[in-house]
Amino acid sequence: MIIGAFKEVQQIFQSASLTIAGSGTQKDQLERIALEMELKNVSFCGFVEHDELPAVYAEHDILLNASTEDNFPGSLVEAACSGLPIISTASGGIPDMLVSGYNGILIPRGDQAALASAMITLLNHPACGIQMARNARHWVESFSWFEIFGRWQKFLLCGAQIQPSVSPVCDNESAIHWLRV
After folding, report:
1. pTM of the predicted protein model
2. Are residues 103 and 152 in the same domain?
3. Are the beta carbons of 90 and 108 closer than 8 angstroms?
């Protein structure tokens, strides 16, 4: 799907490049498809060591994720930390991570035309991608130790009832909201 969508993008942005990371079971098939489509500027970097990831993210402008099922892809968190706008399928738990148009763009699973359209939109409107990346960075900062500790502290204090006469530090609505987050 990504390679087919990239072909549409390259018809408009001839100098666009695509890097596919990972050494999964589809790597050989994807390389063959890229060759058959005679695409330019497509590279396969295989497995990337964890300490090399920041450099790989820094070399690119957009993160694409075409997962058919994934609960909480680490690559989306890494891209948000790296300041990249994110385009992803709305599969599994991903819609709980990204709000389409706010901190990323969600597309239907398997929709090559929607993926191409999202890429073209971000390439035509880089300010939009920059704002989404900022929003994604703000979202990912909610996982910092400082934020998590404060939430756990609030949750534990709200849930602990030492004496019925003691006023709660927070209301139950706040604790329930945190659990939904």
Report:
1. 0.82
2. no
3. yes
